[in-house]
DNA sequence: ATAATATTTCAAGAATCGTTGAAATGAAAG
DNA sequence: CTTTCATTTCAACGATTCTTGAAATATTAT
């Protein structure tokens, strides 16, 4: 991943509501969760949740799929993992000092 | 680390120039590098580099110290590591799926 | 076709961020 | 104490992001 792309992904994570969405979707597991329930869980209005979900989907950090009337969202683990790898390996050169700091 | 703080740190990384700074400082190692040389390495004007360095220092992702006329900067590995841990453990619940995606 | 449900889109305004070049600050040398 | 060097600060502007509530869209059921 190149810096410009990583910067966009970090920007997508630079919001507490969106981090709550990620956490909520990780807990929801592979079945995902629909937009309305996500909004309730993170304590946001439908339109605010939709705005944040769109930002995460645009960054491909979550995947969106329609199931009947609902739109369900799931975490895109390879994408999140790619960002972690960028930070650890590309940006920080695989630094052992850094890895020790996150117990890796 | 709480979500609000992590969001601020992700925001500090949400810029290609600032990611270049981090990479440059990791390569520079424990001795750090002064502001002028950082500016040259990342191809930014002194004032732009100063702006980005201030953002990183404000987030405590880098540490600033005066050495004679120069201000030298170093990466704050525990802080960067804390953010990686937040993402892997707190936000993503230590998900094994995610860890596989970044070869951990 | 009409109604009900789930979600997104839109407009408007506030807030924050990024860039530029000029001026100001801090530290050291002559 | 004046000059020089290194860096930051500032003002101004444009660009982007966030929030709110109302309106629009898509899907399903009657």
TrEMBL record, chains A, B:
CDD domains: HTH_ARSR
PROSITE patterns in UniProt: HTH_ARSR_2 (PS50987)
InterPro entries: ArsR-like_HTH, HTH_ArsR_DNA-bd_dom, Metal_resp_trans_reg, WH-like_DNA-bd_sf, WH_DNA-bd_sf
Keywords attached to this entry: DNA-binding, Transcription, Transcription regulation
Residues forming coiled coils: none
Cell inner membrane as UniProt keyword: no
Keyword ATP-binding: no
Matches recorded under SUPFAM superfamilies: Winged helix' DNA-binding domain
Molecular function in Gene Ontology: DNA binding; DNA-binding transcription factor activity
Residue span, HTH arsR-type domain: 1-95
Xref: PANTHER family: ARSENICAL RESISTANCE OPERON REPRESSOR ARSR-RELATED
Official protein name in the record: ArsR family transcriptional regulator
Native species: Yoonia maricola
